[in-house]
Amino acid sequence: MTVETVQQTRALRGVLRAPSDRSITVRAAILASVAEGVSRIREPLESDDADAALRCIAALGAPAAPLGSGCDSAGLRIAGRGLRGLRAPSQPLFCNSSGTTMRLLAGFLAGQAFDAILDGSEQLRRRPMRRVTDPLRRMGAQIEDSDGHAPLVIRAARHPLHGLTYDMPIASAQVKSALLLAGLYADGPVTVREPAPTRDHTERMLRAAGVEVTVGAEGDAGRITTHPPQKPLRALDMLVPADFSSAAFFMVAAAITPGARLRLVEVGLNPTRTGLLDALRAMGATIHLSGLREEGGEPVGDVEIVGGELRGVEVGGALTPRMIDEFPIFAVAATQAHGITIVRDAEELRVKESNRLEGFVGELRKLGAPIEATADGFIVEGPARLRGAVVDGLGDHRVAMALAVAALRAEGETKILGAECVAKTYPAFFRDLASLVDDCGA
Ligand code: S3P
């Protein structure tokens, strides 16, 4: 087990490109495997979750290779096998702890002409899978789960899957994506209705590959339909932006450190992901966006954050899914804000890599944070004087990284046990954090 020690700091300064987007990298690997021709994925994420996805598609007959010299950025090339060209894996597909890989592959494999088993780490085996297996069965998929959990045994589809119209009970991009990917192998359209907008990377990438994706008119924007492809999927040629959810740790670190100034570059700014910016602005944070552009159908730009005083806010409704992965770090921001911060409609936090309501709240309290979990979120009263302590990452990358940022504002030093879990999405996190701490300037 790795223990990382983080000291209180007075200044943060610098420029950083956070690692590339996990959601986009996993989706690109999956779609590229069945495209026609060679896909080029520049700057893909290199992390445990990305490795899991790439190993799974290699086992299905579509290995990734380095882009090769002569290219101006690091990357991968994946020779697509066509929609019907993948082969049966010789062993269970091991998704490690990547829920995105497992849930998206469940949909993607449901209509293939071969059997496959999806399995994962103990942590992933504890996460709920019925949310994808139930609607996939309604499309005609033959899937067995173990009491609603992995391993998932997916039987060869003897016929095309059926189209589906599905009112999603929870706002989940993984469920939506699993169904839209299953739709590549259906004999009719797949329509999902989301209770609130969730990340739309799958829809954007399907469109880039030439699949017809329609979104409901105003007032019905949560209705998304994909149509069975009429032609082979176009290979992808894209640059993966920095992951907003990884950059978010530094956005909050800067926002809560008086005098800090950080610039996060080439960050994915898809509006379905940037709820944290709205919440921080409502708290009074100073944020400047620049260099706004599109890369491979995704909005990208630079985010500059200046430290200052924050005030408590309320977060709930449609904002919650737009910052679903940012609640651990948002809670840290709330500990430094004046007044009360309330988070609602966030029950989903109980079924992430850890229970991010009970477990995470407990670790933050060890640092002296006045935070209480509620039935569907948490309440924090700030500003709190945090004190260094020994805390546990709970095997959850975002918990470990959020605790490290809290430690920057805690008197003395904090030890984070089990810090190796950051490798899921951000292997160099502690190195990058150290590079931005500017105690000489303090
Ligand atoms: C993800 C969707 C979200 C998010 C997860 C990644 C994705 O999960 O929390 O980290 O890539 O689609 P849910 O679909 O369970 O909300």
Explained architecture:
By secondary structure, the chain is α/β, with parallel strands linked by helices. It folds into two domains: 3-20 and 241-439, Enolpyruvate transferase domain (UDP-n-acetylglucosamine1-carboxyvinyl-transferase, Chain), CATH 3.65.10; 22-239, UDP-n-acetylglucosamine1-carboxyvinyl-transferase, Chain. The chain is built from 14 helices and 25 strands. The strands form seven sheets. Strands 2-15-17-16 form a four-stranded mixed β-sheet. It has a four-stranded mixed β-sheet with strand order 4-5-3-14. Strands 6-7-9-8 form a four-stranded mixed β-sheet. Helix 3 runs parallel beside helix 6, helix 8 packs parallel to helix 11 and helix 8 (244-255) runs parallel beside helix 13 (397-408). The relative contact order is 0.14. The chain binds shikimate-3-phosphate. Residues 23, 100, 172-174, 177, 199, 324-325, 348 line the site of shikimate-3-phosphate. The site of shikimate-3-phosphate has 10 residues, from helix 6. It holds the Pfam family EPSP_synthase. Residues 6-433 form the Enolpyruvate transferase domain.
Pick out its properties.
globular; UDP-n-acetylglucosamine1-carboxyvinyl-transferase, Chain; alpha/beta; Enolpyruvate_Tfrase_sf; 3-phosphoshikimate 1-carboxyvinyltransferase activity; 25 strands; EC 2.5.1.19
Cα Rg: 21 Å
Shape type: globular
- Name the beta content range: 25-35%
Assembly context of the chains: single chain
The name CATH uses for the topology of the largest domain is UDP-n-acetylglucosamine1-carboxyvinyl-transferase, Chain
- In total, the number of domains comes to 2
The residue ranges in which pLDDT falls below 50 over 5 or more consecutive positions are none
GO molecular function: 3-phosphoshikimate 1-carboxyvinyltransferase activity
Subcellular location: Cytoplasm
Pathway: Metabolic intermediate biosynthesis; chorismate biosynthesis; chorismate from D-erythrose 4-phosphate and phosphoenolpyruvate: step 6/7
GO biological process, one term: amino acid biosynthetic process
